Amino acid sequence: MKITRLYTGIDKESYFEEIDVPLFDSGEIGRLSQSQFVSGIIFRETDGDYDYNYHNAPQRQYIIMLDGEIEIETSLGDVKRFSAGDIILAEDTTGRGHKSKSIDGKPRRSVFITLE
What we know:
116 residues; Jelly Rolls; 4-stranded antiparallel β-sheet
C-alpha cells in the first residue's frame, strides 16, 4: 500500500517520499499489513477556507483523508495534493515544517492516528 511520508531531513527542511507498506496474504479476509502500535486517534474537520502557514506535525501520525482536498507544501516548495483515500505519514516534528491549505473550498474531514 502506497503512503506519502512527510519528514524532516538532516538539513531541517521538510520533504516528501513515497513509501510502500507491505501487505501479506491473510486468506479469505484479504491482505493485511503488520500491526503497528499507536497511541491515539483524533477525528478532525476543517473549514473550506483552511490555510495554515509553516508548522510542524505535533507528533508522528498517520493522516487518513476521508473527504475534501488539501495541498501540502514542504519548506523547499514541493507541493502535493491529497484527497479522499490518501494516507500521509507526518513525521516533520522538527525543522521549518510545512504549509497546508484547503484547495476545493469545502470542509475536509480526516482521521489522525498518533504513533508511539
